[in-house]
Automatic annotation (TrEMBL):
UniProt-listed HAMAP family: BioA
Location of N6-(pyridoxal phosphate)lysine modifications: 291
Protein's pathway: Cofactor biosynthesis; biotin biosynthesis; 7,8-diaminononanoate from 8-amino-7-oxononanoate (SAM route): step 1/1
Documented EC number(s): 2.6.1.62
GO molecular function: adenosylmethionine-8-amino-7-oxononanoate transaminase activity; pyridoxal phosphate binding
The name this protein goes by in its record: Adenosylmethionine-8-amino-7-oxononanoate aminotransferase
UniProt: pyridoxal 5'-phosphate binding residues: 123-124, 262, 327-328
Cofactor: pyridoxal 5'-phosphate
CDD domains found in the cross-reference section: OAT_like (cd00610)
Protein keywords: Aminotransferase, Biotin biosynthesis, Cytoplasm, Pyridoxal phosphate, S-adenosyl-L-methionine, Transferase
One term under GO cellular component: cytoplasm
Residue numbers binding substrate: 63, 156, 291, 326, 421
Enzyme category, top tier: transferase
Length: 456
């Protein structure tokens, strides 16, 4: 639709209509009495364009989903073509080329041994599938006593009940505790929490020892260990050494529990490699994918698993071993077509090579913050960077949560044309891969000015 045919609604009118009928996620709606919502009418590359014409650099890739920019023409063209062919079909007993092509490509690019693809709707659904599949695998193998999971402290895997059950976000667990399973929590190998003088590898070794102790006590009742490889994103962009994943794979093999890799946020090039697990040279038993899978165009997720897991369910109907999970929009052709177009961009363009150049430039620009009196840590893994704001640099004492210092950074960003959405008092960057070095300069400079205002 051309601009001549499309008259964007007035910003104030759209906001008023929104507030009369909508309830937004991860939001205290009362905040919008003093913090107006931003009505967006289109996207252009790394930028969002508001109804009033103001532009905002999307420094968080719209909740980490957008890889190649808003309105990416190749993905858009694939969707337009698919719209004229098939919009949706039941995925039980039926199939279609976009789903088959996507599954073939995921098997080709994911770590060795991941040979079966189960499609779902979103990241939380992928986690639900992996948890149920792991439990059901052990049940089919005659190990019904395996009913529990091990997760890391500070972990976040989604907000459906199963995904929340293996997450360690205090607010959620406090609120919904009566509804949740109770996992065993292993200490995170987060480098920020290391002892003085410890290297990231030292921390990994120490935390693997604690994981071993946990498995020695609980492996007999444990289905799987679930982790976010390299970066615990929603838990505060906590980062750790790849050697932890290598050691964890060995422990899971030794104690006969599954390894679930939640690469929903870190997959598809965010950490510098196509998948974070590659940096440890390991293959999980289940890899959960979403967010960037469709380049940010459509809701879709996938669980990629092994033929060993698949065979545990493959039997005559009367055996009662079939996997029990179905959503109406499983295998949606439009979403699958967007995903195959996204995968083609990875094949055709030097994405990872360019990301390394962009990541190096981002590292250079954020380096001065190391010496800031209210910054306790500056950390980066590939195209993910984070700045930890604290009240006292020496003691790392945090600002009181009620101060909402991160919100001050967010407000400053909006005022100056950047979408920065801190996690509490952690300012982070996870921009689309089409961002330029000049745009990175603008992004970091805007954040720095926001930080100064926030800690004043």
């Amino acid at each position: 639709m051309t601009d001549a045919l499309f008259a964007p609604p007035a910003a104030d009118t759209l906001v008023a209509r929104d507030r009369s009928v909508l309830w937004h996620p991860c939001t205290q709606m009362h905040d919008h009495e003093t913090l107006p919502m931003v009505p967006v009418v289109r996207g252009e590359g790394a930028w969002l364009v508001g109804a009033d014409g103001k532009r905002y650099l999307d420094a968080v890739s719209s909740w980490w989903t957008n890889l190649f920019g808003h309105a990416e023409p190749r993905i858009g063209a694939a969707l337009k073509d698919q719209l004229d062919r098939l919009e949706h079909v039941i995925f039980a007993g039926f199939t279609h080329e976009p789903a088959v092509e996507l599954a073939e490509e995921l098997v080709r690019i994911t770590p060795k041994g991941l040979d079966r693809v189960f499609l779902a709707d979103n990241g939380s659904a992928a986690i639900e599938v992996a948890l149920k599949m792991s439990f059901h695998y052990w049940l089919n193998q005659g190990h019904g006593e395996k009913t529990r999971f091990i997760a890391l402290t500070g972990s976040y895997h989604g907000e459906t009940l199963g995904a929340l059950s293996v997450s360690d976000v205090a607010l959620y667990r406090k609120t919904y505790a009566p509804l949740l399973l109770t996992p065993e929590l292993a200490p995170s190998p987060d480098t920020y929490e290391g002892e003085p003088g410890e290297t990231p590898k030292d921390i990994a070794i120490r935390r693997l020892g604690e994981m071993r102790s946990l498995l020695e006590r609980h492996a007999h009742e444990t289905c799987a260990v679930i982790v976010e490889p390299l970066v615990q994103c929603a838990g505060g962009m906590r980062m750790y050494d790849a050697s932890y994943l290598t050691g964890l794979r060995a422990l899971c093999d030794e104690f006969q529990v599954h390894f679930i890799a939640d690469e929903i946020a870190v997959g598809f090039g965010r950490t510098g490699t196509l998948f974070a697990c590659e940096q440890a040279g390991i293959s999980p038993d289940f890899m959960c994918l979403s967010k960037g899978l469709t380049g940010g165009f459509m809701a879709l997720s996938a669980v990629v698993t092994t033929n060993d897991v698949y065979q545990a369910f493959y039997a005559e109907y009367a055996a009662g071993k079939a996997f029990l999970h179905s959503h109406s929009y499983t295998g949606n052709p439009l979403a699958c077509r967007a995903a195959t177009a996204t995968m083609k961009i990875f094949r055709d363009d030097p994405v990872l090579e360019r990301n390394r150049v962009l990541a190096a430039h981002m590292a250079k620009r954020i380096a001065p913050l190391v010496d800031h009196p209210h910054v306790a840590d500056v950390r980066q893994t590939g195209m993910i960077a984070a700045i930890e704001l604290v009240a006292d640099k020496k003691t790392r004492a945090p600002f009181p949560a009620a101060d909402r210092r991160g919100l001050r950074v967010y407000r400053h960003g909006l005022e100056h044309g950047a979408l920065l959405r801190p996690l509490g008092n952690i300012v982070y960057f996870m921009p689309p891969y089409v961002i330029t070095e000049r745009e990175i300069d603008f992004m970091v400079e805007t954040a720095m000015a926001g930080i100064e205002k926030a800690v004043r």
